[in-house]
C-alpha cells in the first residue's frame, strides 16, 4: 500500500488517495478464489476443483474483485490513516475505486477528522470554592435519620393520624365493577406520605383497627391509566391495624447498637468528620465543574457534527446498559416516558457537546504543555483499572492498548494543570 496524496478539504475533512500494489491485489485474489471455489461447479471439474483461470474465463476476470478488495481495503485504509497522521471521527466515504491491470487498484477515501482547536488563557481561570461549615444541627439531622432507620412500629388502639402506618385491605370499584390494580391486602400505608392518589390517605386518617368503610375518590386527570384518569371511584377499605413509629433513645446504647463506638459523643464526632469529608468532596466537585465550564467556553474551532453524534450514541448505549442492570431496556423506558429516539438524542446533546469540547481542550493543553505518560503512570493506571474490575493487570493490558491509556493519562494531567494554575478564592 502507498499513500499517493493527502488533500485537506473544508469542514475538517481529508481526502486520501491510496494505491494498493499488484502483489497485494493478486494475493487477495488468490485468497478470494480459495474461499469461493468450494461452492463453484464447472463442467468437466468436480465441485470446488475448478482452476481460477477457468472460473475467470467463464464468469469474467472481475469475478473475484469484490471479495479481494474487501479483504485488502481495511488494512490499506488504516495504514493510509496512520501514514497521513490523521484521526478520523467517522466512517470514510470511499469513491473512485479503480482496478488497473498489472498495477493493483487505487481508491479515494474522504473522511471527517478530529479538528485542531485553539485554547487560550487556560491558566489563571477564576473560580470559587465553597466549603460549608459543619454545624451541630447537621450532625443532629444525621442522628435523627439513623433513629428513623432503626425505629420500630408498634400497634396502637387509637385512631390513625398522619405519620402512622395503617395496615389495610382495600379494593376499588368503578361503576360498581372492580378495576384492575385496585386491590391490596394488609398493605402498609404510611399516612401523609402521598403514596396513594390524592384524597385516599386523608380519609383513612381518623379510623382505628377493625373499622370498615368506603372512600369516594376521583382519579387525577394526568393519571397513567387511560380508563381511570379523571374518573370517580369507590374504595372499600378495612383497617387491620394502626401502628406508630417508636424511635430509640439517643444515648450511648444507641451508639453501640448502630456503630463501632461506645459513646454517643464519639459517634457524633465520627459523623462530624464524615460530613466534613463529604462537604469537602462536594466543594472539590463544584470547583472542577466551574473550571470545566469555563474551559469549554475557551475552545475555538469548528467541531464536526459526527463527534457530537458519536458521543450521543455512546451515552445512549451506556444508559441502555444501566437500564439492563435494572431489568429494563430502552424500548420499555421510552414507552413509559413517552419519548422517542430523537427526543432522547436531544436530551443527551448538551452533555455530549460539553464532553467533546472538554476532551478536545484537554488534549490540546496536553500537547501544548508537552505532557507525557511514563511507564510508572501506565502501570498505576492499569493497576487501578484492574482493581476496579477485579481482574489481573496483565489481562487489562491485553484489552486496553497503552497508546489509548496514555491519552487518558495526559488528559488527566491536563485538568490537574488547569486546576493547579487556576485563580481560586474561597467564597464568602
Structure description:
The protein has 428 residues and is an alpha+beta fold. The protein is 47% helix and 22% strand. It contains 13 helices and 13 strands. It has helices at 22-36, 52-59, 65-84, 136-149, 200-204, 252-258, 264-298, 305-325, 330-337, 341-368, 375-389, 393-399, 402-420; strands at residues 2-8, 13-20, 93-99, 105-112, 118-119, 126-129, 152-156, 165-174, 177-190, 212-218, 232-246, 299-300, 423-426. Strands 7, 8, 9, 10 and 11 form a 5-stranded antiparallel sheet that branches. Strand 1 (2-8) and strand 2 (13-20) form a beta hairpin. The model has no long low-confidence stretch (mean pLDDT 93).
Q: What's the topology here?
A:
Blueprint: E1 2-8, E2 13-20, H1 22-36, H2 52-59, H3 65-84, E3 93-99, E4 105-112, E5 118-119, E6 126-129, H4 136-149, E7 152-156, E8 165-174, E9 177-190, H5 200-204, E10 212-218, E11 232-246, H6 252-258, H7 264-298, E12 299-300, H8 305-325, H9 330-337, H10 341-368, H11 375-389, H12 393-399, H13 402-420, E13 423-426
Parallel strand pairs: 6-13
Antiparallel strand pairs: 1-2, 2-4, 3-4, 5-12, 7-11, 8-9, 8-11, 10-11
Helix pairs in contact: 1-3, 4-7, 6-7, 7-10, 8-10, 10-13, 11-12, 11-13
Amino acid at each position: 500500500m502507498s499513500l499517493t496524496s493527502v488533500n485537506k478539504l473544508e469542514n475538517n475533512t481529508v481526502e486520501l488517495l491510496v494505491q494498493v500494489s499488484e502483489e497485494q491485489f493478486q494475493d487477495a485474489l488468490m485468497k478470494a478464489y480459495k474461499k469461493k471455489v468450494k461452492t463453484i461447479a464447472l463442467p468437466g471439474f468436480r465441485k470446488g476443483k475448478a482452476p481460477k483461470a477457468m472460473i475467470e474465463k467463464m464468469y469474467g476476470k472481475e469475478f473475484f474483485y469484490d471479495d479481494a478488495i474487501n479483504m485488502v481495503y481495511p488494512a490499506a485504509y488504516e495504514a493510509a490513516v496512520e501514514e497521513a497522521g490523521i484521526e478520523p471521527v467517522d466512517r470514510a466515504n470511499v469513491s473512485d475505486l479503480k482496478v488497473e491491470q498489472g498495477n493493483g487498484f487505487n481508491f479515494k477515501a474522504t473522511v471527517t477528522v478530529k479538528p485542531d482547536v485553539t485554547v487560550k488563557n487556560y491558566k489563571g481561570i477564576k473560580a470559587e470554592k465553597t466549603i460549608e461549615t459543619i454545624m451541630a444541627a447537621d450532625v443532629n439531622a444525621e442522628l435523627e435519620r439513623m433513629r428513623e432507620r432503626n425505629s420500630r412500629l408498634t400497634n396502637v388502639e387509637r385512631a390513625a393520624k398522619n405519620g402512622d402506618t395503617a395496615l389495610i385491605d382495600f379494593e376499588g370499584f368503578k361503576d360498581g365493577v372492580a378495576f384492575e390494580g385496585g386491590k391490596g391486602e394488609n398493605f402498609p400505608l404510611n399516612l401523609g406520605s402521598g403514596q396513594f392518589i390524592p384524597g385516599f390517605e386523608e380519609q383513612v386518617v381518623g379510623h382505628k383497627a377493625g373499622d370498615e368503610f368506603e372512600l369516594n375518590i376521583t382519579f387525577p386527570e394526568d393519571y397513567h391509566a387511560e380508563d381511570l384518569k379523571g374518573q370517580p371511584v369507590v374504595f372499600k377499605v378495612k383497617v387491620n391495624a394502626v401502628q406508630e413509629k417508636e424511635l430509640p433513645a439517643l444515648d450511648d446504647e444507641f451508639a453501640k447498637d448502630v456503630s463501632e463506638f461506645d459513646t454517643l459523643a464519639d459517634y457524633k464526632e465520627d459523623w462530624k468528620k464524615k460530613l466534613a469529608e463529604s462537604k469537602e468532596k462536594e466543594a472539590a466537585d463544584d470547583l472542577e465543574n466551574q473550571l470545566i465550564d469555563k474551559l469549554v467556553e475557551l475552545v475555538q474551532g469548528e467541531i464536526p457534527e459526527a463527534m457530537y453524534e458519536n458521543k450521543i450514541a455512546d451515552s445512549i448505549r451506556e444508559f441502555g446498559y444501566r437500564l439492563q442492570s435494572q431489568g429494563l431496556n430502552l424500548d420499555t423506558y421510552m414507552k413509559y416516558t413517552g419519548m422517542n429516539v430523537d427526543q432522547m438524542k436531544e436530551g443527551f446533546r448538551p452533555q455530549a457537546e460539553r464532553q467533546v469540547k472538554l476532551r478536545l481542550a484537554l488534549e490540546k493543553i496536553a500537547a501544548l504543555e508537552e505532557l507525557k505518560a511514563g511507564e510508572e503512570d501506565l502501570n498505576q493506571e492499569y493497576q487501578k483499572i484492574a482493581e476496579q474490575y477485579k481482574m489481573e493487570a496483565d489481562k487489562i493490558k491485553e484489552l486496553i492498548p497503552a497508546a489509548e491509556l496514555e491519552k487518558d493519562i495526559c488528559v488527566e494531567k491536563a485538568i490537574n494543570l488547569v486546576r493547579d494554575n487556576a485563580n481560586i478564592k474561597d467564597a464568602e
